[in-house]
Amino acid sequence: MNDRDNTIITRKPRQALDRGSILQDAQRELAMPARRLFGKQLLTLGGLSLLTGCSLTDEKSVNQFLVAVSRLNDRAQAFLFDPHQLAPTYTEAQITRPFPFNAYYGVDEVPHVDAAAYRLQVSGLVTGKRTWTLPELYTLPHAEQITRHICVEGWSAVGRWGGTPFGDFLKRVGADTSAKYVGFKCADDYYESIDMPTALHAQTLLTFDYDGERLPAKYGFPMKLRMPTKLGYKNPKHIVEIFVTNTYPGGYWSDQGYNWFGGS
Ligand SMILES: Nc1nc2c(c(=O)[nH]1)N[C@H]1C(S)=C(S)[C@@H](COP(=O)(O)O)O[C@H]1N2
Ligand SMILES: [Mo]
């Protein structure tokens, strides 16, 4: 057998093996204790889809992706994050109806936030520490997105959210955008935090609307942070406080030691 034949024979398997060994390396890295990692950021959908070779554009690729992700632990290194990578967007016809509800409790226990009494607290490393009423928030510049929400419990769905670009909001409140984290407290016992590059990502929206209507209680009234570059549980609903910090704030699921699939 000459060299040329050999090359032809091994080309495909070698590509397959490369992906396998990349995933194996990632798995090793991810299994390391969080304190040894560079930062405490969660592996992003973009990073994971690169590792798994899945495009995340339809049910089949998302399902393949979820299977691949199930082998990974839940911490990752910051280099896997590409702040310029955009998540796929969809058409109105591709919206999943009805859009699924999910929380750590049943739909009959959804918190009902009183619109008139509601105040959003903005705190931490911001020059504009203050509270916001809903009418004030509704006057902010508006953007819409139709994107896929991917839940680690094994489902994904396309939805349409409307709200204000979160990066612009952070700049408006004088956030220190060189800080590491943005944390969220919710009207239930949920809390989450995200890295600043994700907070400033072009598709990260502070949403007040779902499918052209005010966000209903089950989808997070009065607001849900929508990040198509992050898995479902990173998207806090019923937000009551937003704070900017350099101290890792954790999150409802990650603090219980759950990995990306461990929640239920
Ligand atoms: N406040 C709050 N936000 C939350 C949750 C929650 O239990 N409480 N669950 C998360 C999870 S795991 C998912 S999949 C999505 C579900 O959002 P949906 O009900 O709009 O589908 O909300 C996320 N944000
Ligand atoms: Mo989820």
UniProtKB/TrEMBL annotation:
Quote the SUPFAM superfamilies the UniProt record gives.
Oxidoreductase molybdopterin-binding domain
- Origin superkingdom: Bacteria
Q: Name one Pfam family in it.
A: Oxidored_molyb
Q: Name the Gene3D superfamilies on file.
A: Oxidoreductase, molybdopterin-binding domain
Could you tell me which residue ranges the Oxidoreductase molybdopterin-binding domain spans? Answer: 109-253
> What is the name attached to this protein's record?
Oxidoreductase molybdopterin-binding domain-containing protein
Q: What organism does the record attribute this protein to?
A: Paraburkholderia solisilvae
